[in-house]
Amino acid sequence: NLTSLDLTSRGIAELRAAHEDVRRRYQAFAERKLKLNLTRGKPSSKQLDLCNELLSLPGGDYMAGAVDTRNYGELQGLPELRAQLAPIFGVSPDRVILGDNASLALMHDAVVYSMLKGTVDSDKPWSRESRIAFLCPVPGYDRHFSICAQFGIEMIPVPMLDTGPDMAVVEQLVASDPQIKGMWCVPKYSNPCGTVYSHETIERLAKMPAAARDFRLFWDNAYAVHHLTHEHIEITNIDEACARHGHPNRAFIFGSTSKVTFAGAGVGLFAGSKDNVAWYLKQMSMRTIGGDKVNQLRHVRLFNTNGGVAALMDRHREILAPKFEQVLKTFEQHLGDSGVARWTRPKGGYFISLEVLDGCAKRVVQLAKEAGVELTPAGATHPLGKDAQDRFIRIAPSFPELPEVTQAAEGVAVCVLLAATEKLLQ
Ligand code: PLP
Q1: Predicted-assembly ipTM surpassing the 0.85 threshold
Q2: What lines the ligand 1 site, CB under 6 Å?
Q3: Which of 42, 95, 120, 420 is deepest in the core (most CB within 10 A)?
Q4: Residue 259 Cα, ligand 1 centroid: separation in angstroms?
Q5: How far is the CA of 110 from the centre of ligand 1 (A)?
Q6: Where are the beta strands (DSSP E) in 257-384?
Q7: Mapping DSSP to helix (H, G, I), strand (E, B) and coil, where does residue 394 land?
Q8: Hey, whose CA ends up nearest to atom 1 of ligand 1?
Q9: Model pLDDT for residues 386-410, shown as the tens digit of each residue
Q10: Which of 111, 141, 376 to mutate to test the pocket of ligand 1 (most atoms within 8 A of CB)?
Q11: Distances from the Cα of 70 to the Cαs of 46, 284, 329, 408, in angstroms?
């Protein structure tokens, strides 16, 4: 196998031969005229089927204790569901607010409320500042960046390390620039790297001095219970850490049941300090008289009868883990010793991050598309879609069935090799 040795240390003749070999493999793959898609970080139909019981809940009994779930009210959400979800996010149930199906909507609203009204620690609304900036660990989640772009918030990329964002960079920036008001954080099994923030990282985020008194961590714990292995990693409690270091209001915590029950009909949540929760409820009370309590009650009953969230997540893992293993195995087989790619081996979450040679990510995505494999656009993992080094590709194996995942991963591997030999021959 001509590509089983480090391509970056080959002579020209050997590289040309490797290139020809890979080109033939690429052609053969393209001729299969497959239609594969690795762009969608969403649950597969089999995963959604795990919760089909929701479709017949709550049954005829729509009362949650004394609360008639069909009616207005209970702005903060049903106490029973808050009690079930609160421990996952490390706060008490009185400091949880249930929203509608998308936590993204709650993040969007938290930004809007801060812009138009200011936070509990702001002297004035953020929109009255000359400039607002957020730190954006990269690679990161494109929809976080879209919220910033939408409201004219400057995005400052910060490199991700194996332990989370590069804290030396974060501390320096946050301490020196009072216009930095926020930072996006996906602390567990991050999108797309699968990174878990270390204890030290979380302590430093909670403790670091901020030039802006109203600096906020947008703590998007979207993958809190989404383990891919039997090792159920727990992270340091951000709410406690912030309180302990004298910054009780620093963290806005977000989460949802999108990838626990139904991605389109789950329950989103906001959590935080007593003051942050009162602040959020006040803004929210202008927007709604109460959320979808029928859905909240359906969730309570589903969790009560199915062994709770953890048991459900085990069943998700059984479906998801083989797909991730297949991608990793295929990459290892085809790219393992090639020296032209590396990738993350996540222990949870929904993504694998593939890193190719500088300047090759766009080309890989294009080659893959032409051969029938749809990938997330290169650059999507960076603010404004700009990955300056053009090296990161997000792989989402959750949605297709296992045979398609296998074929798609093979196709991607061949595209990576082809783009690399093209580049090395330039
Ligand atoms: N946050 C992260 C990091 C995500 O990856 C996703 C979905 O891919 C979301 C939030 C969306 O969550 P929700 O469905 O609760 O809006």
Answers
A1: yes
A2: 41, 102-104, 141, 186, 191, 220, 222, 256, 258, 263, 268
A3: 420
A4: 9
A5: 15
A6: 268-271, 341-343, 352-356, 373-374
A7: strand
A8: 222
A9: 999 999 999 999 999 999 999 999 9
A10: 141
A11: 30, 20, 49, 46
Give the ligand 1 atom nearest the CA of 268.
15
Question: pLDDT 10s digit of each residue in the chain, 426 long?
Answer: 555 578 988 899 999 999 999 999 999 999 999 999 999 899 999 999 999 999 999 999 999 999 999 999 999 999 999 999 999 999 999 999 999 999 999 999 999 999 999 999 999 999 999 999 999 999 999 999 999 999 999 999 999 999 999 999 999 999 999 999 999 999 999 999 999 999 999 999 999 999 999 999 999 999 999 999 999 999 999 999 999 999 999 999 999 999 999 999 999 999 999 999 999 999 999 999 999 999 999 999 999 998 899 999 999 999 999 999 999 999 999 999 899 999 999 999 999 999 999 999 999 999 999 999 999 999 999 999 999 999 999 999 999 999 999 999 999 999 999 999 999 999
Euclidean distance between CA atoms 411 and 422, whole angstroms: 17
C-alpha 97/C-alpha 114 separation (Å) is: 17
Pocket residue to mutate for ligand 1, from 183, 191, 398, most atoms within 8 A of Cβ:
191
Count of CB atoms within 10 A of residue 264's CB?
Answer: 11
The residue contributing the CA closest to ligand 1 atom 4 is 222
DSSP 229: S
Helix and strand counts by DSSP (H, E) for the chain: 13, 15
Residues in the chain: 426
Give which of 335, 393, 400, 293 is closest to 63, Cα–Cα.
Answer: 293
> What is the pTM for the complete model shown?
0.97
Vertex 210, ends 209 and 212: CA angle to 5°? 155
Q: Which fold has domain 7-47+311-424?
A: Aspartate Aminotransferase, domain 1 (3.90.1150)
Helix (H) or strand (E) holding 63: strand 63-64
Pocket test for ligand 1, best of 42, 89, 190, 256 (most atoms within 8 A of CB): 256
What is the number of the ligand 1 atom nearest to the C-alpha of 259?
A: 14
* Range(s) within the chain of domains with CATH label 3.90.1150.10: 7-47+311-424
Distance 42 CA to ligand 1 centre (A): 9
357: nearest Cα among 272, 422, 276: 422
Q: Is domain 65-307 given the CATH code 3.30.1120.10 in the classification?
A: no
